[in-house]
Amino acid sequence: MTKKRPTQADVARAAGVSRATVSYVLNDVSGDRIPISAETRQRVQEVIAQMGYQVDARAQALRSGDTKTIGVMLPMYENPYFWQILLGISREAEASGYNLLLAHSSLTPEQESQSIRELAEQRVDGLVMLIGFKQLSDPVLQQLRASNRPIVVLTSTPFEFDYVIQGYGEGARALMQHLLEFGHRRIGFVLGVTHIRQGLDRLDAYRKALEEAGLPYDESLVQQCGEFIEDGYQATRLLLSRPDRPTALLVINDLMGMAAIRAAADLGLRVPADVSIASFDDIPFTQYTVPRLTSVSGHPEQGGREAIRVLLRRMQEPQRPQEIVTVGWQLHIRESTGPAPR
């Protein structure tokens, strides 16, 4: 037979106090309006410990209207970068007393919109979303607006809700400057994205850096492909098999950067003696490739933490102006980049 869980009423009877007093002790309420002696407080806490009483979170949520749960949506990609974002979200939420309800989006705008709609229908106090396609349909936006929930978007482009934006545009310009200083003049770009909007911040920086260096923008050196590792491998082979191959490659993320190093090796090219390769995200694996991969960090864990902080501020002040937080970047120069070959 299942043992009955003790209730607040049971604790009150055992401690010889009112149920309200038990509630005040549980919620750490005190002060002049609700005087509870230290002796009474200690007695109630001892009974709670002896009886093994636990707060019924579901009942508490129904009474208060708060679920202490945050809905989180991340793309369903194999990239560890998103795991690092989730780590930051999880740690900051846990430190603030919140649980997470996780959802994922797939690799089409339609599936992503469906995931967002389903998440918006859940009983959560707010939403943190990393949106892969950057542009939501009007019905989905209307549903999010009508939900009246605080919403924070992790993004690389502006959004109508509060958002945390990555500084990859400036990071890409610094990376291009690094390659230009090494004497590279034919720089290719492996643009592994589902939709061009997902890489516009880095592509625009790439074009502007060429322009400022007095170099032409050659569209044929930008190889757009899918978002999987194999896509990056094949795109790199295409660029490096050209008779006028580039001497350096920017790659949209580190997973594809690792695939690019493999593709170069399979073609008999040395990195960086024959071709320099650099990428974005600075996932932990970059320090264990051969050679170690030059990469721009977008501080994903910090971005996840900032998203939760912005969300909590919005919860406390629903009418505050839109908040935009920019997460910094850092260029880590390693062994995969070097002087342009003669």
Core attributes:
six-stranded parallel beta sheet; Rossmann fold; 342 residues; 12 helices; single chain; six-stranded mixed beta sheet; 434 Repressor (Amino-terminal Domain); alpha/beta; elongated
Question: Any idea what the shape is?
Answer: elongated
Give the strand order, joined by hyphens, for the main sheet.
2-1-3-4-5-11
Count of helical regions = 12
CATH class of the largest domain equals Alpha Beta
**What sequence of helices (H) and strands (E) makes up the elements?**
HHHHEHEHEHEEHEHEHEHEEHEE
Low-confidence stretches: none
Structure in words:
This protein is an alpha/beta fold. The protein has 3 domains: 8-55, lambda repressor-like DNA-binding domains (434 Repressor (Amino-terminal Domain)), CATH 1.10.260.40; 67-167 and 300-329, Rossmann fold (3-Layer(aba) Sandwich), CATH 3.40.50.2300; 168-297, 3-Layer(aba) Sandwich (Rossmann fold). It is 42% helix and 18% strand. It has 12 helices and 12 strands. The strands form 2 sheets. The chain has a 6-stranded parallel beta sheet, with helices on both faces. A 6-stranded mixed beta sheet has the order 7-6-8-9-10-12, with helices on both faces. Helix 5 (80-95) links the parallel strand 1 (69-75) and strand 2 (99-105). The longest helix is centred in the C-terminal third of the chain and has 17 residues, at 300-316. It is elongated and about 90 Å long.
